[in-house]
Amino acid sequence: MKKDLRIGALALMAITALVLAGCPGTGSPGSSGAKQILGFTVTVGGQEVRGTITETAHTVTLVLPQGTAVTALAPVITLSEKATVRPASGEAQDFTNPVTYTVTAENGTTQAYTVTVIVVRPLDEAVTAAETAVAEVVVSTDGSDVPEGTAWVSAEVKAALDAALEEAAAMLADPDATDEEKADAAKALEEALAAFNEAKGTGTKEETEEPAADKTALTAAISAAEAAKTGVVVNTAAANVPPETQWVTQAVLDTFTAAIDAAKAVAAKAAPTQAEVNAAETALKTATTTFNAAKQAGTKPKPGTGAVTLTPPAEFTDLAETVLDKGPTVTIYRQGTEGTSLTVTVDTTGLDGATYKWMLDNTEVGTSANVTVDPWDYFPGTHYLSLEVIKAGAVWSRELTVIIDSGSK
Question: Which of 167, 173, 212 has its CA nearest to residue 188?
């Protein structure tokens, strides 16, 4: 009985070994797991072209001369020892699109490689393609600062393509360059572009939704700017503008208006960034400060007479009775806090020894040869200013109508 058990166990072990030997991916003990493409070449026009193998990405790239047909290329493939590949080495393939080659190790494990064939384009087309490729990526160290879905390369990779692009562009612009030289330049650029594309990565930075920008301060700055323009007129000289009015030049107003419009444009955006809003606010506040500093008060005098000279008649000293002359009507205005005062002066020629008496609305306001009426000392309206000059018993009287206007004119 024991003998039968030993025979059964030996049979089971033999069967297990046979099964394991026939299972893919298992292989016999000590079998190799190497499964690399070590070489990938095609022959074009009698010239052998070697592909560039990037083991980390498991890709192979071949750059072939202009005009090469790629629909039936039969590559020669060198593999790790005891490995096999499908499609097989020497088997013609259509490389219009990338082709996947699967390498199987001795132990049955596999590795897929993507083979891409690039046919060199005319130099101008190659330059355009390289320029486009550079424009579509950003530079990063590891892609962690690049949004998801955005391509990136390292600074070194970009610099390499930039250098190749610069050389190709110079060759393209050289009127003495031969077709052969241009073809060589195009091939070098295509190889650099292929390496560039191979090195591209995709960003890993997750997009975060920005909070809505706070426009409160910007709106307030716009309101303040609009208020700063209120009452300001455009002119070229202070002498043309009344004292209570501020003025600026047209150029100053145009610059300020443009700053306000720019701020309003940002405020009107549906989703501006907070940085945009803050920059617009700062710029407008600066423009408002500049505008306020440029404003000037006018110096144009108010209409009306500010000074009157009274001259008695030549025969005054020979008169034995009072002579009353009606004087002019004078209007003076209240301006600012001081107003435009009226000064009335007597021509004292020949009046040595004379006395003077000034009356405003029956109130004595002076006893010298002149008197000043300040509009802020009296109510607005019509007043009467009279003068009596007395010499040697003769009296000469003069009366002026004084209108004090409280408004601006």
Answer: 167
| Long-range contacts of residues 100-103, Cβ cutoff 8 Å, at least 24 apart | 101/37, 101/60, 101/77, 103/35, 103/36, 103/37, 103/79
Cis preceding-peptide flag for 87 (omega within 30 of 0): yes
Q: 95 lies in which domain range?
A: 37-114
Residues 49 and 130 in one domain: no
Q: What is the DSSP string of 278-301?
A: HHHHHHHHHHHHHHHHH-EE--PP
322 and 397 within one domain: yes
202-245 pLDDT per residue, tens: 999 887 766 888 999 999 999 999 999 999 999 998 878 877 78
Considering the entire predicted model, what is its pTM?
0.42
Name the residue type at position 306: G
Vertex 280, ends 279 and 286: CA angle to 5°? 90
Judge whether 209 lies within some domain: no
Q: What are phi and psi of 88, to 5 degrees?
A: -75, 155
Distance CA 201, CA 1 (A): 69
Q: 254-284, pLDDT tens digit by residue?
A: 999 999 999 999 999 988 889 899 999 999 9
Does the residue 78 lie in any domain?
yes
